[in-house]
Design a protein that fits this description.
The protein folds into two domains: about 1-105, Orthogonal Bundle (Arc Repressor Mutant, subunit A), CATH 1.10.10; about 130-289, Multidrug-efflux Transporter 1 Regulator Bmrr, Chain A. About 40% of the residues lie in helices and about 25% in strands. It contains ten helices and eight strands. It has helices spanning about 1-15, 25-30, 35-45, 50-70, 75-80, 85-95, 100-105, 150-170, 170-180, 240-255, and strands spanning about 130-135, 140-150, 185-195, 200-210, 220-225, 225-235, 265-270, 280-289. An eight-stranded antiparallel beta sheet has the order 1-6-8-7-3-4-2-5. Strand 3 and strand 4 (about 200-210) form a beta hairpin.
Length: about 290
């Protein structure tokens, strides 16, 4: 359970330093993983981003302080990281559905978010079929887009839009034709943080396929390093089956094994079958150590 304990250590660090200028790098350091992989693990386990969790907890504590003290709204706003009372009031209303002044006039109730405690239940009710294989480095070719690793809502919208685009403009068909069989299918590759833009970590997301030849016009290439891979079977329609599989991997499989994420790119593997089919077969490949 060391993996679960490391995630909880990072959460405890956030709670202890809620009034400070928290950075994702400092939080992830507590779990001894990269910022990218901590954010991904956190969002899979909790269905919210790290930033959302911090904001919700700060506004919960701010609400409690408004109820129990006579501290001025402007002072509470500054304490919880808001530069103006207007910005604080807007964020407060978004979470609690009332303004700070309404709360003090007893004209509504708080929407409270409690401190998060990670608990893992290993029931084994839904067995996971997986294999562990070793594979030499191989090249993928395809297209890539940059997404914020902080703005989960951007990824939820942007990545499906990218898949819709490549399915309609012929790119996906071209990738299936190019595939050299090293890994059979079209891949959705989630890369490591590539750079920072205005203090926001950005990661590369690829729609690609394994191909060792010359890179086609309009495409880019990436070498995936030699790795030991945990390969999980996924059965069912997209996106529900894939989302459920990721949650089970992070909440059950990792905590119950001695493996850790190796920190290199991971990917989802798709066939050319109907993505809405209840019998659709896909895979998740995670580099492990």
């Amino acid at each position: 359970m060391a993996w679960v304990e490391s995630i909880q250590k990072a959460i405890d660090y956030m709670e202890k330093n809620l009034m400070e200028n928290l950075t994702i790098d400092s939080i992830a350091k507590q779990a001894n993983v990269s910022a990218f992989h901590f954010q991904r693990t956190f969002s899979v386990l909790t269905d919210i981003t790290v930033g959302d969790y911090i904001r919700r907890r700060r506004l919960t504590l701010a609400g409690e302080e408004l109820l129990t003290t006579d501290t001025k709204v402007i002072d509470i706003a500054h304490k919880y990281g808001y530069e103006t009372p207007e910005a604080f009031s807007k964020a407060f209303r978004r979470q609690h559905n009332l303004t700070p002044s309404d709360l003090r006039k007893s004209k509504g109730k708080l929407q409270s978010y409690n401190r998060l405690m990670i608990q893992v239940t290993l029931k084994g009710a839904n067995p996971m079929k997986y294999s562990v294989i070793e594979k030499n480095a191989f090249q993928i070719v395809g297209i890539k887009r940059e997404f914020s690793s902080v703005a989960e809502e951007e990824n939820v919208i942007g990545i499906p839009e990218l898949w819709e685009e490549v399915n309609h403009n012929g790119t996906c068909d071209q990738l299936f034709q190019l595939n050299d069989g090293v890994v059979k299918g079209v891949l959705g590759v989630c890369g490591e943080v590539s750079k920072e833009q205005k203090d926001v970590n950005v990661f590369d997301y690829w729609v690609a396929t394994s191909y060792a030849g010359e890179v086609p016009n309009g495409m880019l290439s990436l070498e995936l390093p030699a790795s030991k891979w945990a390969v999980f079977e996924v059965h069912g329609p997209m996106p529900t089956a894939m989302q459920n599989a990721w949650k089970q991997i992070f909440s059950e499989w990792f905590p119950s094994t001695g493996y850790q994420h190796a920190g290199t790119p991971e990917f989802e593997l798709y066939s050319d079958e109907d993505p809405n089919s209840p019998d659709l077969y896909s895979e998740i490949w995670i580099p492990i150590k």
